[in-house]
Amino acid sequence: MDQWTPSDPTVALGAAEPPSEALGAAEPPSDGGTELAGDQELLADVQRLQVIAADLADVEVALDRLAEGSYGTCEACGQTIDDADLARQPTARRCPAHLPLATT
């Protein structure tokens, strides 16, 4: 256990008694539909974390390109990416002519 995890799980839950006694050991807890809402909230959190991870990866690539001197040039054709395009999307790796086409 790390320093932030209490050794007694009831402390972490804020319960005055162990969870099995608080909920009744013989019957499962009734969530009244909150379990589905909790699952949806968890899924939304995971999706937000995936977006953040992808953004971080893009920033890391941009920083690497900056360090090697290729930042601001299109990976496909080698032409300079317009400053306005970089201002809109600082992690851009391709000029507008070489962006992938959106499929809808």
Approximate strand percentage: under 5%
At the fourth level of CATH, the homologous superfamily of one domain is DksA, coiled-coil domain
CATH 2nd-level architecture of one domain: Up-down Bundle
Helical segment count: 4
Radius of gyration: 25 Å
Shape: elongated
Going by helix content, strand content and strand pairing, the class is: mainly alpha
Uncertain segments of ≥5 residues (pLDDT<50)?
1-6, 8-22
Distance between the termini: 48 Å
Mean pLDDT: 79
What's the total number of strands? 0
In the CATH hierarchy, what is the class of one domain?
Answer: Mainly Alpha
The main β sheet shows up as: none
Helix content: 40-55%
Q: What is the CATH fold-level name of one domain?
A: Four Helix Bundle (Hemerythrin (Met), subunit A)
Features:
104 residues; mainly alpha; Four Helix Bundle (Hemerythrin (Met), subunit A); disordered N terminus
What does this structure look like?
- By secondary structure, the protein is mostly helical.
- It has a domain at 33-93: Four Helix Bundle (Hemerythrin (Met), subunit A) (Up-down Bundle), CATH 1.20.120.
- Helix content is 49%, strand content 0%.
- It has helices at residues 9-13, 19-23, 34-68, 83-88.
- 1% of the residues are buried.
